[in-house]
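Predict both folds.
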Amino acid sequence: MAPRDPNLERMVDELANALQATVLLAEYLQLAASASAQDATALTRSLRRATDALQKLRAEGGAP
């Protein structure tokens, strides 16, 4: 495994935290706006995938 890069680690943490907040907002919008529920669902799914990928990267200790 490559040595940890503190700058990359901090960036991944910031992105993961921002995306988690965005996921919560997307879930709220999904519930609040029935007309755009399909769009909100797609947004939520995409944000969850991005958050999961960043969390996996963080757990693995950074970039390969």
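Second protein follows, with its predicted structure tokens after the sequence.
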Amino acid sequence: MRLLRARSLLLGATPPELRQALRKGRDQLQRFDSRLRSALPEALGGRFSQGALICRPLTDDDLPSFAGRPGQPKQVTLGPRCFGIGVVLHGELIAWGLCVGLGPRDEEPLEHVLLMASYVLPKFRRRGVARRLIAARLETAAARGARVAFVRALKNNGASIAALEASGFERVAPAQEPAWLEGARADQVLLTYSLERVAAAVM
């Protein structure tokens, strides 16, 4: 009966309502998958233990891994204002992400950073890797003196936004976005994180 009711509602839905229903269903499925993996042992596809994942700085030798991956920049130049973190499992680079300094070019140390170009190899997703990657980049940015981190996420990517908010990020209202922060898009939401608490925890 419940299935028939849902079917009738979907058949009578307008395109926006249908898209919203599909997004809601996808988010529910991802949350169920996440709960299931948290209950499974690592060997059966559960979450990796923190000790199994090693985070390290990206080097120029790692950059070919970016090539051809969805959402990855075509060209990356690592340096004082652009650094990356990779996640390694049993010697294999399975995830990576960049941090780019924002503000005046002569700003030292970096006061604001933007997290971008995050990528986890598909077979390792929903196993705690993305959250470990976020934490490692925040720790590195705080160690470099940054005070605030920003990240943009697609509005229709509920799983990504939920993971960021679970890591302590907070949404920024469009009217409150910094005027100097470029790259705003209508299909994205901006989130921010205060790195002062990370620096205090490290100390």
